[in-house]
Design goal:
With 277 residues, the protein is mainly alpha-helical. The chain contains 10 helices and no strands.
Amino acid sequence: MDWRAAAFRVLQTGAPADKCAAASAAPDVLGADPIKVDRAAAPPPPRPERPSAPELCTPTKVPKRRFGSPEGRAAVLHALAHIEFNAIDLAFDMAARFAPEIDALGLGTGDFVRDWFAIGAEEAGHFAMISRRLAELGSSYGDFAAHDGLWDAAKETSDSALARLAIAPMVLEARGLDVTPDIARRFRRAGDERSALIIDQILADEVGHVAAGVRWFGRICAARDLEPAATFRNIVKERFRGGLKPPFNREARERAGFSASFYGDWNAPCDASDASC
């Protein structure tokens, strides 16, 4: 199986256990040989295969999730599982969809594909950890409604590697760095240390995922002679509804190489001479 077939296998598999197995196995097909890219190859499907559940609804219709009961904590974990399930597809779509663009820029396609295959496999591991914990709480993925916001963002950035990198890892996953520590604290206050430890592990791994997004965003900007922070701000203002909202986990973002020049003072009045405005 070549690398594109391995990526498409993940994207075209709907059953969660099978998708996770395909994602976990995908890095093994890469080996040490150079990765070949067909720049004329068809892109991945606009939407990956998904299971029949969970029911997808608008974000405002997703039930509120509380930590005070086992069912409430299961609902929180289910929401996180849904994010990780989408993140598996986002990683493999990133590799398959944008490898030709990276290849055309001469930026090291093999490194790009290996990075996103590794991230996709790690997201599958996160989903599996949460699924096991859901089972311990008497629940499973699909038991609660969810929304499709992550894949909506993917569809809206399917035309540009820079846009996808800005919105997926650098906005959405970076937001995870901001909110995840509080989620872990709330599990601990509820006496659920097992769930809190899973959240801790996911947070540690997600720093690396954001770092990969920042790194590849910077490489593409350098190849196109673009200033990274200003380019990021412009993309977010054009493509992400609502902009960025503090508080920001600056310590975790710094560990990911994501400096405050990209996102700091987001709501400050704009100086017309500032290229980031």
